[in-house]
Amino acid sequence: MSSNPSESTAPAAPASIDVADELRQRFPALFGGAFKPLKLHIQADIQQRAPGVFSKQGLSAFFRRYTGATGYLVAMSKATQRFDLDGNPSGELSEEHKQAAVQELARRRGLQQAKVEQAEDGRRKRAALLRDFENTTLTPANFCALKGIAPNALEALLETARKEARERPPQGPHRRETRAPRRNAP
Predict the structure, then answer these.
(1) Which CATH number fits domain 11-93: 3.20.20.70, 1.10.10.10, 1.10.1710.10, 3.40.50.720?
(2) 91 by DSSP, 3-state: which?
């Protein structure tokens, strides 16, 4: 514990505050609801209106996360104006910035789609592996050698495939007919 009484009564260091919460409390018109495109150089406005509350590093880190959020990019792609700390329009949103947001959203959608396709490809391969294993006459060791799978990984792959098969609804021509059969007219 410090013997200097001024140290114990000093306000909290700017780095110790939750920047997002503090911004929401101080500037709810801008940070309290849906994302809005921020006025350029908004950090200077914040420092002017709340001197000493936020560290430059804290604000920079917050704005990297905030402006990189998908919700912010969607707002940028749809808006025509930027907004100040009071939620008032504060300048047009340039077409260049709007297009950058649109391109980043497209890039993210592409990555997400690739991830989904990769997961589905893995499920298909595991389902085929299970089907082949259930129909083979090979020993597990020979089956693994044929498929290029480590013998100690086979059971985990098969169990995952069985679980996925239980969770997947029936598809295509294998689906059982649920309506009554047609009668031929007399």
Answers:
(1) 1.10.1710.10
(2) strand
